[in-house]
Amino acid sequence: MKKFSVAIMLLLVSSCAVRDYQRPVSVRERVEVNNAFAIDTISALALVQINTGPGYDMSRQRPIIDYSYYLDPRLKSDPRSFYPRPDAPPEVKVEPLASTPEAEFFLLSWPSQYAPQNPAFAPVYATYIETHTAYGVYCRSRKPSRGAVVVSHGWTGDDVRKTYKREPLLGFARVGYDSVLVQQPYHGLREPAGSKFSGEYFISGEIARTNEATCQTVTDVRSMVRWLREKYEVVGIRGGSLGGITTLQTAAVESEIDFAVAWVPPSSLGEFPEDSPLIGKIVKSMRESGITPELGAQISYVASPKNFSPAIPKKDILIIAGMGDNFVPPSQTIAVWEAFGRPMIYWFAGGHVVNHDRDFCLELERQFMAARLPGKKSNE
């Protein structure tokens, strides 16, 4: 209760919490940004209490898997080798899920083509049976669509059969795109039986597993891109938060996509500060295990898109980020934006939880996607 009282106090004194703005702002926007920053702080505190509060064994966040594989100079000199190119899934199971006047929804499932890159992780991964199968919710418009987009959700995202309605899939359908919302590894339908919460095994102090989870989600997205490519000529990717960083990591290694849209993306999960309101306890567990900030950056090098250049033209990349984000520090987003050659970026008045420009941002995204359709063929 005391911590929540402190959080409420933060909200009351938030008028000057944000010092740096990435673009000129009005007085109203300044207030909106600072309020959003405070709401992020309160929300992060609540999530931490729910997921890793009293009774949670923080030893679960200490790294035990040998991470020396990621420090091999040969891997750093060719980090794209960490992401083997997958084929389209040889077989995708398609099951009816729901129907609306605008679209039909199906649950897709297929064997993940990912294989552990770090040999030390292989026996551990073998026990995570649930994440060996990839899942996605396929939104197919009742009108002919010329394009498709693979969508990736954020950290702690639940079963995609329950959450697909929260994503703007129908909005994509209205501008000519069918879509597949992919379930991230270790989340929802892919959550291992021993998890304490959805996504616990993705972003964690077990940094080797975080690297490998990034490789797996990139692999699953790329294989779904190829499956969709057989049906559509225009195929892109889109994601937010954790889905934002994995979208950009995919765009760093996959040239066979037509565009990438990343919302509030981090650039390096291994370089979050210990005072992060969202994952500070996880970072602290790494530090107590001897992983310094410098070592963390080296270990996570291959899973940090800021260390790559994009595999597609920067004109086909759109980043949308919040000036008051207190889940993902704006400095993280700026780092990958710089590395990617400064593609189109829009800084909205808001944070990770509240976006006061949400309607504008969604329209900007739809226009960006629609602009890539002229001259392309229908999927019919």
Question: How many angstroms does the end-to-end distance come to?
Answer: 57 Å
**How many whole angstroms does the radius of gyration measure?**
20 Å
Largest sheet: 9 strands, mixed
Secondary structure class reads alpha/beta
In N-to-C order, the SSE pattern is HHHEEHEEHHEHEHEHHEHEH
Strand order of the largest sheet: 1-2-3-5-4-6-7-8-9
Counting DSSP E segments of at least 2 residues, the number of strands comes to 9
Per the principal axes of the C-alpha atoms, what is the gross shape? Answer: globular
The low-confidence parts are 376-380
The portion of residues assigned to helices is 25-40%
* CATH-level-4 superfamily name: Alpha/Beta hydrolase fold, catalytic domain
The overall pLDDT, averaged over residues, is 95
CATH architecture: 3-Layer(aba) Sandwich
Number of discrete domains: 1
CATH structural fold name? Rossmann fold
Main CATH class: Alpha Beta
Percent of sequence in beta strands? 15-25%
What's the tally of helices?
12
